[in-house]
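User: Hey, quick favor. My workstation is busy. Could you predict this chain's structure for me?
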Amino acid sequence: MKNFYKTKEKGGISLVGILILGFILILVLSYYKISIKSVVESPTAKENINYVGGTSKNLWNDYLKKPADYFWNKVVKDLLWKSFVNNMERIRDGKPTELEESTPSVDIGTKIKNVD
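Assistant: No problem, here it is.
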């Protein structure tokens, strides 16, 4: 019979993988005698970094800031944050959370008497 619980997970690269990849990249650049410092400090690189930074700021201010502020203030803070803080305080105090209180429970320990 096929075991459905053992599935191959397809995922991205882990944080450790990114660090190892960065280390390998630095070693390869060093092998070809490419100085990262001279590349970053070159006028062309500075110009490109300033251009990307300015474009990113314009993109954020013109298109993304208003929807992100709305999502944060109206959805996260108004709908989710108060409930989150309330439930964390309940957990801290040893009380059941709102979810635990609202879910139905079944008492498995009750015995049924056999009636003849």
